[in-house]
Every structure is written in structure tokens, then in C-alpha cells.
Design brief:
The protein has 444 residues and is an all-alpha fold. The chain folds into 2 domains: 192 residues, no CATH class; 205 residues, no CATH class. The chain is built from 17 helices and no strands. The longest helix is centred in the middle third of the chain and has 37 residues. The chain is globular and about 60 Å long. It starts with 9 loop residues before the first helix and ends with a helix. The model has no long low-confidence stretch (mean pLDDT 89).
Length: 444
Amino acid sequence: MATDFSHNTVSKNIISQAVPLILAQIVQILYNVVDRVYIGHLPGSDGLALTGIGLAFPVTTLVMAFTQLLGAGGTPLFSMARGAGEDEQAGKIMGNAFSMLLRCSLLLLVFCYIFRRPILFLFGASEASYVYADAYLKIYLLGTSFSMVSAGMNGYINAQGFPGTGMFTTIIGAVLNLILDPLFIFVFHMGVSGAALATVISQMISALWVVRFLTGSKAVLHIKREFLRIDWKLTGQIASLGLSGFIMQSTNCLVSILCNTTLRDFGGDLYVGIMTVINSIREVMTLPVHGFTSGSQPVLGYDYGAGKPGRVREGIRFVTVTAIVYTLLAWIAVIVSPRFLLSVFTNNKEMLNAGEHALNLYFMGFCFMAFQFCGQCTFVALGRSKQAVFFSLLRKAVIVAPLTVLLPRLGLGVDGVFLAEPISNVIGGSSCFIAMYLQVYRKL
């Protein structure tokens, strides 16, 4: 039965929605960062193994961008077709998405595998770090189809009303990765290759779980052979809805490439590894606020649709205050214990010593991220996705990317790369929140 958000307080409704999302994202974060935790403590690598994994980030982000374009873009169409009673059309949408994900994954696999050396050097590798990056990437790429099918088709399980089954797709992959990583890395002495193999096997099992469900008896609609033929008009509709996610992931890929190449030129492999660790800490630190703001969206949207502007304003205030308090506490945690946070991902003394200063620079003014999250989540919740995409691109493509290139060349060196993030948080976060306040909050 659908939840009626008109009952209970707005804050209670938001919390009830946010907690499951945060728990789900904790599992996803485990999936993403566990490789780095183990590899960062690999004996004898001098931090280069961690640098190698960091160099592969843009490739994994690019894979996720195409997954968003061809997978996630189809789920709204699928839901609308089901709601209209057009089950055959819904089946065609799901089958078309599945076929396109498979074809695209094979193209990405072949292209990236053949050209992985020039790609990795383009992404910031040196001769020393390339050895580790190549060892990881050439195995990781073999799981491209598993990764795209698992992530891209899982939404069709949720859209059929099986969120528990969809949640298990992530859990089974994360738990397997957590178990297999130390086994392959330390017991079988496979190093970064073991980390990649553990990830591929975990993605394979997750993908098989998804396909088995969508072809099994429990699913409402199934992947059928007759619906696997590509309908290019339908593909265009799917891609148009997935374009915003594709652009956002592609922008992340661009920023990651610019950070790696600039740090390599101004600081060497050591600082590429430090950025890998800092990105991992940022993922963990932003998880609660991201889950909290995402959880608020259905509540804000429901009250807006129900014609209750006072409850929407109350919800925005609650989300904003909570997000600011959390990000302030997270910033304080970084100031108080930067070395401890870094030590979770690496035991390399040189990386720890240089990383403390870099981490403090990167997280300076972290509380301004709360304004970015709150502004964007409000825009999305009230159906203004164009504004959400615009302000995401403003922060990343218009502010972070140019500053990452320019600041080091203006005499700041590697510090300039780490300063680009807080500057973008202040400018981009403030702009997003002010626009939301003027365009939405004041008019409610």
C-alpha cells in the first residue's frame, strides 16, 4: 500500500524514508571502497598499488555513465507503461534496455581493453604506476557486462514492486567482494589483480541474480526473446531520460582525469594515490547527507502535489538544518583526526604525512556541500530536474574542472588541485541554494 505522507510530522516522514536509503548506500559504499582499503595495506607497493586503482576510476565512472544512459533512463518509461496498463510496451522497454546494455558493454570492453595503455597514461599514469593500473584494469574490464547488467537492470526489479529483491542485488555483491578481496589479495598473493578478480566475480553473481529474477516466475514482467530486438526509436526515448545521469557521471569522469593528470605533473604518483584515498573518505563522509536528502524527496514531492506548501517549507528547513549540522561535524572530524581517517586506507608513511595537509585543504568549508545537496534535492523533488542538472554541472564542469587545471599553474602547485573542491563548494553550493530559495521556497 502506498505511503500517505500527509500523516505524522514532516521530519518523522523524512527520517523514515532516509534511514533505509542510508543503510542501502552503506552497503554500496562497502562495495566501492573495500578494494582500496585492502590494496592500501598491500606490503611492498609503496602506495603505487592504490595509485593504480585510482587511475582506473575514470574508466569505472565511464561505464557507470553508459549504464545510466541505457539502463536507468528506461525505468521511468517502464513504470509509466505499466501504470497505463501497457504491459507489452513495458516488456519492450525492458528488453530493449537489456540488449543495449549488453551491446554497449561489449563495445566498451573491446575499446578500453585494446587501448588501455594510452587510456591510462591519458588518465594520469606514469611508467611506475601503470604496472598496477594495468594489472587491475585488464581484469576489471572483463566484468563490464556484469557491472552494467547488474546496475542497469536492477531498477526494473524495484519498478515491479520488489525493493527487497533489488536491495539483495547490492548486498550479495558487496558481501562477496568483502570476503573474496582478502582471500585473493593476501592468501593467494594476487595483489591488485586479486582485487579486480574479486570485483568481477561479485558483479557476475549480482548480474546472474538480476537476470534470474527477471526471467523467473516471481517477476510480474519478464525479459522475453521477442522483446530483445533493438527498437532505435525506443532507445532514443530511453537515452533522453538517462541523459542527465550520463552527463553527471561523465563530468565526474572528466574531473577525475584532470585531477590525476595535474597531480602527476605537479606532485607525482604519490599525490595521485593521496587523491584516491581522499575520494574514498569523501564517499564515506557524504553518504549520510546524500541518503538523507534523497530520502526527503518523496516526502517533499508528496506534500507539494497535495497542495501543502507549509509542509514543503517545513521539510526544506528540516533537511537544510540537519545537513548543515552533519557536514559541520564531518568537517570537525577531519580537522581533529585526518591521519586516522587516512590510515584506514593506507599505511604508507609518506602518503600519510603529505595526505594530512591535502585532506584538510580538500574538506575546508565542507558544510557548503549541504547547500548543494539541499538545493538539488528540492529541485528534483518538485520536478525541476533541469535546475538540478544545471547546478551539478556548474559546480563540476564550470568551476572544479577549470580550477583544477589553473590553480596549480598560478603558483599553488598540488595545493591548487585540493583547493578547487572547497572553492566550488562555496560558489556552487551557495548559488544552488540561493536559486532554490528564490525560485521555490519564497514562492511556496
